[in-house]
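In the design runs reported in the main text, the only information available to the sequence generator was the tokenized backbone. The following block is the verbatim input for one such run; it is reproduced so that readers can re-run the procedure and compare outputs position by position.
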């Protein structure tokens, strides 16, 4: 019985040991599943210069020429403005040594011509101003002459109307008066003829009566007194006849005088009409004077305008000459400046301080073309960055501001992925930006600047190596620090091929503390 119980006990001891071991393994695995793990993505790149002005630059020939002398040696450190190499121009247009002097003489001659042209412009402008003043005075005098001629014409026209009125009145009144006097004279003649006939009849009657009474007196039938009375009546009749005839003669004479008066009235009318014609001629002359004065004014204005136009054209021509001389002067000055600049380009100087490397053209007499690289100048700068290249699977996880651990070629280092504490020989950095486009190989450039981080334990990260030993182009390996997760989650992620978690907003870094994710 005892032996049987011993056999049974010995049979269950391995099982208990195995069970204990399994429990220990399970406990260890369970414990490791909750161990914190630092996620990261890695990339390879190189050291570069961030500032474009501090990057290595080539020293190029500025003009075609021939090297005369080098003033530096390869590997020499130079300052900004130091003379590196002198060349001589081989362009046929710039081989004349007297060309600067000739260009200066040409410039002086053109400048002198420019002064003469400017003086000519001033003189022509003064002449034009004088012509404008003379035009104003001449046009004023011409307008005044027109006004005087028009006043004289108006006066003569008034005189003409007065003369015409006078002539009309003289003609009408004088002729009417002469006609009236002629009618009156004709009536007096008729009356005088009737009076003469009556006187003749009375004389004849008195003569007959006298003869009858004289015969009766001779017969004694009448008295002496009757005879005398008859004689007296006869004499009286004859006297009346003489008076009637005299009155008729006077009436005839008055009639003839009336003809003369009518002729005189006609003459006066002719004189008045002649005065009218003379006044009309004077008016016509005055009208012609007004017309001539207007024509003279127009001609004067046209002549003065033409003179002003010629003066303006002369001024414009002189100004064009000034502009042409100015253009030629500027052209010569540009040629002088270009010649001076080309002469200065024969001496190639350092654009900034740095170290000279890779002299490609050595020895005097070597011919170079414009743009040929003569050497490379590496500026002395501490403004360095690291350019890491990440795959397109890792690049979306990186944001500006993320911390980075860097390992440089030639500097021993120990970096355990997922554990930041044991890092030895690595340097700190921080993501500056990520390129928005790939490099053609589905890789994205991540630019990292130096960042002396405060690590776990309170120690401060060391600075990057001196620029004299960490040169641009040196290889670099970097780990971009992401989130801290349990080791079990990381193992599960690795087994399933999932990428690390994409960060969102502000997060707390296990090494550096709070991390501000910035986007630009």
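Verbatim output:
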């Amino acid at each position: 019985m005892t032996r049987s119980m011993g056999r049974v006990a010995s049979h269950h001891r391995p099982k208990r040991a195995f069970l204990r071991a399994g429990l220990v393994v399970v406990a260890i695995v369970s414990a490791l599943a909750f161990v914190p793990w630092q996620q990261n993505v890695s990339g390879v790149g190189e050291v570069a210069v961030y500032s474009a002005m501090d990057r290595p630059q080539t020293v190029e020939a500025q003009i075609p020429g021939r090297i005369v002398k080098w003033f530096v040696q390869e590997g020499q450190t130079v300052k900004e403005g130091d003379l590196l190499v002198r060349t001589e121009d081989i362009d046929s247009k710039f081989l004349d040594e007297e060309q600067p002097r000739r260009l200066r003489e040409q410039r002086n001659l053109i400048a002198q011509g420019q002064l003469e042209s400017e003086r000519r412009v001033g003189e022509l402008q003064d002449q034009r101003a004088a012509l404008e003043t003379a035009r104003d005075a001449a046009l004023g005098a011409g307008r005044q002459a027109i006004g005087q001629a028009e006043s004289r014409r108006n006066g003569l026209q008034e005189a003409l109307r007065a003369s015409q009125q006078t002539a009309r009145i003289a003609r009408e009144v004088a002729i009417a008066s002469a006609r009236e006097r002629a009618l009156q004279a004709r009536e007096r003649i008729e009356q005088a003829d009737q009076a003469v006939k009556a006187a003749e009849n009375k004389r004849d009657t008195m003569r007959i009566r006298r003869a009858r009474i004289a015969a009766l007196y001779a017969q004694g039938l009448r008295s002496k007194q009757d005879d005398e009375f008859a004689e007296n009546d006869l004499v009286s009749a004859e006297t009346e006849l003489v008076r009637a005839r005299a009155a008729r003669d006077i009436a005839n004479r008055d009639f003839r005088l009336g003809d003369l008066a009518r002729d005189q009235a006609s003459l006066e009318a002719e004189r008045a009409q002649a005065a009218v014609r003379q006044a009309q001629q004077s008016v016509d002359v005055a009208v012609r004077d007004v017309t001539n004065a207007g024509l003279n004014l127009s001609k004067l204005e046209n002549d003065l305008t033409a003179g002003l136009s010629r003066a303006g054209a002369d001024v414009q021509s002189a100004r064009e000459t000034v502009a042409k001389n100015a253009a030629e002067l500027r052209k010569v000055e540009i040629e002088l400046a270009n010649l001076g600049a080309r002469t200065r380009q024969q001496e190639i100087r350092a654009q900034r301080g740095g170290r000279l490397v890779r002299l490609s053209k050595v020895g005097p007499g070597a011919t170079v073309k414009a743009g040929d690289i003569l050497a490379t100048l590496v500026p002395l700068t501490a403004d360095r960055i690291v350019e890491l290249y990440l795959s397109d699977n890792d690049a979306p996880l990186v944001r500006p501001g993320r911390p980075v651990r860097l390992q440089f070629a030639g500097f021993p280092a120990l970096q355990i992925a997922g554990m930041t504490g044991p890092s030895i020989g690595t340097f700190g950095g921080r993501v500056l930006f990520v390129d928005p486009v790939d490099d053609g190989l589905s890789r994205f450039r991540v630019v990292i600047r130096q960042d002396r981080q405060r690590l776990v334990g309170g120690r401060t990260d060391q600075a990057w190596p001196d620029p004299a030993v960490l040169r641009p182009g040196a290889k670099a390996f970097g780990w971009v620090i992401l989130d801290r997760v349990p080791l079990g989650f990381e193992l599960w992620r690795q087994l399933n091929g999932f990428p690390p978690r994409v960060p969102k907003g502000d997060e707390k870094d296990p090494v550096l503390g709070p991390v501000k994710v910035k986007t630009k």
